[in-house]
Task: structure prediction
Amino acid sequence: MKIAILGLPLSGKTTLFRALAAGHFSESGDAHLAVVPVPDPRLKIMSDRERSKKIVPSPVAFVDVAAMKTGEDAGARVDKLHALVTDADALMLVVQAFGDMDYDGNAVEPARALGTLVQELVLTDLAIVENRLARLEREHKAKKKGETDSEWDMLQRVHAHLEQSGWARMLEYNDEDTRTLRGFGLLTMRPALVVFNLAEEDVAGEKATPWLAAAADIGLPAETACATLELEMAQLDDEERTVFLGEYGLENAARERLIRAAYKLLDIVTFFTISEIDTHAWTIARGTKAKQAAGAIHSDIEKGFVRAEVMAYADYIAAESREAATRAGKQRLEGADYVIQEGDIINVRFTR
Ligand SMILES: Nc1nc2c(ncn2[C@@H]2O[C@H](COP(=O)(O)OP(=O)(O)OP(=O)(O)O)[C@@H](O)[C@H]2O)c(=O)[nH]1
Ligand SMILES: [Mg+2]
Result:
């Protein structure tokens, strides 16, 4: 699972990336990559109960993409962006809300900057859609009146929406549309989180309220943070961080909130395996069935899958212990086709 950090030049992408990475990072060519553990308070609770020797959280990867230059021709922009973002499952859109001037020498206006950024992304998608429509045109014209042309009609709908600076993901699609669109890799078909990058002195205030509303108008969830403060805090120990937070009138650092908000964008569920060896979070696509989910743990466990013992996290927490929950009938035996639910605690029975 990978999240690409995008934004206008000098909006603070790399600073935020380094803060999120907090040391777990590698550089490769045009992009920076960091695989970071997703904080999940459930893990500590289960691990304490089970006396697990270690906790293995879900990983999520962040990529920091080099600046997008406005004014570059659409073709070059599409190629560059897509090469870097093509395998990203979601986007984090960083918007400058600190300082007086933006990269272009204009006054900082975060709501407008968000509009400009969305416009950039929409333009790359429009180029793709227009390209495809041009290829389909001859075929479409050859159709008889009244004959349906579902790809054409769908793309026209997407095109009209993009022209209004709409996020393509906000339209409704049937399964066939979704399959077709997946092949195009449109940026705005991906879920996105907006992060307004605030000045140090604004981080504890209410200044961002109208900007958050601007993101909501496009239909995108939004968070605030101050990337430079986060980067400093990522380098402190817990005690130092508490002092630092106090100085800025903050209760918590934004890092964990941002990682969790980004992870929440993804169409995934988390299930757990728990034992004395470890308390382990596993990430699978929503709708994954028990047998394939077992494959996330090990291919042999998928191959030899017999049944899965499943207990909901809430039932586990409500009972004194796993044994007590089992005695209360909260542990179910499920077959290969059972669809894993968020927070399921699983033990797979398998043959070797
Ligand atoms: N005051 C303040 N300055 C920031 C903040 N975030 C970034 N900056 C500054 O803005 C400048 C650009 O930050 P970067 O993180 O390099 O921005 P970027 O978006 O990666 O820039 P490009 O990759 O060149 O487009 C640096 O001088 C940062 O120190 C912030 O939250 N507050
Ligand atoms: Mg950068």
In short: The radius of gyration is 23 Å.
